[in-house]
Design goal:
Elements: E1 5-11, H1 16-24, H2 29-37, E2 39-44, H3 51-60, H4 64-67, E3 73-76, E4 81-84, H5 95-101, E5 106-111, E6 124-126, E7 138-139, H6 143-151, H7 164-188, E8 193-198, H8 200-208, H9 219-222, H10 225-241, E9 248-253, E10 257-265, H11 267-273, H12 283-286, H13 294-306, H14 309-333, E11 341-344, E12 349-352, H15 359-375, E13 386-391, H16 392-395, E14 407-411, E15 414-417, H17 422-425, H18 427-432, E16 435-437, E17 442-445, E18 447-453, E19 466-467, H19 471-478, E20 483-484, H20 498-503, E21 508-509, H21 524-537
Parallel strand pairs: 1-8, 1-9, 2-19, 5-6, 5-8, 10-15, 20-21
Antiparallel strand pairs: 2-18, 3-4, 6-7, 9-18, 10-16, 10-17, 11-12, 12-14, 13-14
The structure holds zinc ion (ZN).
C-alpha cells in the first residue's frame, strides 16, 4: 500500500510530555486517533535543539554538517558582524523542491527558515526568520494579495502583547486563523504533499511556563495556558483532517520539545573570566548601562501594540538601529587576535581562534575547554549547567562542517545560554555574573514528536529511535518515491506494515544534493525589521 498524498502538520516545540496527559484526559481526541491508526514516538532533535537547525534537517533529511544551518545567527568574522540565518545559506534541497522537481504537487506553509520562498509546484509561504517588511515571501507571486484580501495581514506567528492574558488570546485565535488559512490553501488547488507549521505551541511554552508554578501570583489564571493552546491545536487539527481526503497519509512533527527554564549561563562572561576572550575596551565604560525600568519597558510594549503600523515602525526603527549597532560593536570590541574563544548565537556554540595553533595545540585547547565547561558549577544550586560539550566533528559530517562553531554546548535541565548581544544591551547586570535569571521561563528539550497514520502505517506502532533526519526519507517512502542517496536519515521501518515493506522496500537513488538556490540574503532594511521581531521573542 502507498499513500496518494501526504499532509504534514508541524507544531513547533510540541512534546508528548504535555500531549500524553491531555490525551488521557480526553482533551486531544484528534491526535489520539491518529496515534491509534499509525506509528508514533519521540523525535530526537538536532544538536543544538533550536528551530532553524532542526526544521532544516527535517526538510533536507541531512545533518547540519551538510545543510549548513547551525544557528539563528551567522557570525561573519571578516565583516565583524552578526547576520540572521536565511534559506539562502541552506546547501541542500528541501523535500517540497525534490517532489516539485519530480512533477508532484508540493506546498510548504510557514516552515521556519524558508525565506526567500522555494519555487515549488504548489505554494510556499516563508515562516519564522522572514523579514517583517518582506514583500516577496509567498510563491507564486500574486498569492499574497489573494490571501490578504481574505485573511488580513499575514503573520508567521501572533504578535506579542505585554499583557499575558491578551497574548494568550492572540495565540489561541492565531491557531484558528492558521487552520482557516491552511484549509483554504488545501482546497485551493490539488496537492500531493502539503506541510503547514503552527508556531503557537513554542511561543506559549517560552513565555507561560512560569505560571505552572503554584507559587506564581498568576497561577490561578494562567497555570494551564500551555494546555489551552495544545487543546486548541488539536481542535484545529480535527478541522484540517476533514479536508485531507480518504487516501491521504497524515504526518505530524515538532522540531524539539519543551521544559522549564530557570537560569541562563552567560558563556562570553565565563570566557572573559577564564582568559579566553579579550575585549578591546572596558565594556562597562564603553556602553552606558541601559537598565530601563520595568515601567518603561511596559510602556514601550504597549506603544508597539497599539500604534498604527507606520508610526510604530518609525518609533522602533531608532531602537533597532541601536540594537544593530550593538551587535556590530560586539564583534568589533572582541579583540580576536588576543582571544582564543568566543560564543555567538542563541545555541551555545563556541568559536575558537586557532591561528598559530597546530593540530595538537587545537586538540589541547578543545580538551581544556571541554573539561572546564563540564566541571563548571552554579554556586546557587550546586548543579552543573552543561551536560555535554561536543567538538563539531563529533556530531556533524559533510562539506559545511567548517562553518559550524568549533564547540557546541548542551545545557542541563533548567539551564539555557544567553545571547551574547545581551551583554552590550544590558551590560551592567550581565557583566556581574556568569549565572543570571533567564528572561524566558520555558526552554527547548531534546525530544519533539513524530507520528504518521495512513495506508501502510502500522496501527499503534511505537517508534523508539526516530531522529529529525529520518522524517523526510519516511515521508518519501509513503509517497512511493525514491530516497536521495545523500540523505543521512532512514525510513522508520518499525512503523510500516510488514506486508507493505515486503511488497515495496525503500529505494534509494543517486541524486544531486545541491540546493536549487533560494535567492539573495537579506537587505539591511530586512535585518533591522527582523531584529525587532526577534527582540520581541526574546532572542535578542
Ligand atoms: Zn522550534
Amino acid at each position: 500500500m502507498k499513500a496518494e498524498k501526504i499532509l504534514v502538520i508541524g507544531w513547533d516545540g510540541a512534546t508528548f510530555d504535555l500531549i500524553d496527559p491531555l490525551i488521557k484526559a480526553g482533551r486531544m481526541p484528534n491526535i489520539a486517533k491518529l496515534m491509534e491508526r499509525g506509528m508514533s514516538g519521540p523525535l530526537a532533535s538536532t544538536i543544538p535543539a533550536v528551530t532553524p537547525v532542526a526544521w532544516t534537517t527535517y526538510m533536507t533529511g541531512v545533518n547540519p554538517g551538510k545543510h549548513g544551518i547551525f544557528d539563528a545567527f551567522v557570525l561573519d568574522r571578516k565583516a565583524s558582524a552578526m547576520r540572521f540565518v536565511s534559506a539562502s545559506r541552506r546547501r541542500v534541497k528541501p523535500v517540497w523542491s525534490i517532489l516539485s522537481d519530480r512533477g508532484r504537487a508540493a506546498s510548504a506553509v510557514n516552515v521556519p527558515v524558508t525565506y526567500p520562498p522555494d519555487k515549488v509546484s504548489g505554494v510556499c509561504i516563508s515562516g519564522m526568520f522572514t523579514p517583517p517588511a518582506a514583500e516577496d515571501f509567498m510563491h507564486p507571486p500574486g498569492l499574497q494579495e489573494e490571501l490578504t484580501s481574505r485573511f488580513g495581514r499575514y503573520l508567521d506567528s501572533p504578535a506579542m502583547y505585554p499583557d499575558p492574558e491578551r497574548y494568550l488570546e492572540s495565540l489561541l485565535s492565531g491557531v484558528d486563523w492558521r487552520a482557516d488559512l491552511t484549509i483554504h490553501l488545501m482546497e485551493r488547488a490539488p496537492w500531493e504533499f502539503f506541510c503547514s507549521v503552527f508556531m503557537e505551541s513554542d511561543r506559549v511554552q517560552h513565555f507561560f511556563w512560569e505560571f505552572r508554578d503554584p507559587a506564581h501570583p498568576l497561577y490561578a489564571k494562567l497555570h494551564d495556558a500551555i494546555e489551552q493552546v495544545y487543546v486548541r491545536l488539536d481542535a484545529a487539527l480535527g478541522r484540517i483532517l476533514v479536508h485531507a481526503g480518504e487516501n491521504a497519509a497524515v504526518a505530524m512533527l515538532s522540531d524539539h520539545g519543551a521544559g522549564p527554564l530557570k537560569t541562563a549561563v552567560f558563556l562570553n562572561k565565563w570566557l572573559i573570566d577564564e582568559g579566553y576572550l579579550t575585549v578591546k575596551a572596558d565594556l562597562q565604560e564603553l556602553f552606558t548601562p541601559r537598565k530601563s525600568s520595568a515601567l518603561r519597558q511596559l510602556a514601550g510594549k504597549v506603544a508597539r501594540a497599539v500604534l498604527p503600523d507606520s508610526l510604530r515602525k518609525a518609533r522602533v526603527k531608532k531602537k533597532i538601529e541601536h540594537i544593530n549597532r550593538m551587535n556590530d560593536l560586539f564583534c568589533q570590541v572582541v579583540d580576536w587576535e588576543r582571544s582564543t574563544a568566543m560564543s555567538d548565537g542563541v545555541s551555545g556554540g563556541i568559536f575558537l581562534n586557532t591561528d598559530g595553533l597546530d593540530a595538537a595545540g587545537r586538540a589541547k585547547l578543545v580538551a581544556e575547554l571541554k573539561e572546564k565547561l563540564l566541571a563548571l558549577t552554579d554556586p546557587a544550586t550546586g548543579q552543573k549547567p552543561f551536560e555535554a560539550v561536543y567538538e563539531r566533528e563529533e556530531i556533524y559530517f559533510g562539506e559545511a562542517v567548517s562553518d559550524a562553531p568549533d564547540l557546541i554546548t548542551v545545557c542541563s535541565p533548567g539551564y539555557g545560554v544567553i545571547v551574547p548581544h545581551e551583554f552590550l544591551l544590558y551590560s551592567q547586570e550581565y557583566l556581574d555574573s556568569v549565572f543570571v535569571k533567564h528572561k524566558w521561563s520555558g526552554r527547548h528539550e531534546k525530544y519533539g514528536i513524530f507520528l504518521l497514520a495512513g495506508p501502510g502505517a502500522k496501527a499503534g506502532a511505537k517508534l523508539t529511535n526516530m531522529a529529525m533526519a529520518d522524517v523526510t526519507p519516511t515521508l518519501l517512502y509513503f509517497l512511493d518515491e525514491d530516497i536521495p542517496d545523500y540523505m543521512d536519515g532512514h525510513v522508520a521501518v518499525e512503523g510500516v506494515e510488514p506486508e507493505t515493506l515486503r511488497e515495496r522496500p525503500p529505494k534509494a537513488s543517486a541524486a544531486d544534493m545541491a540546493s536549487n538556490g533560494a535567492g539573495e540574503a537579506y537587505s539591511e532594511e530586512d535585518e533591522l525589521e527582523m531584529a525587532e521581531g526577534l527582540k520581541d521573542l526574546g532572542y535578542m
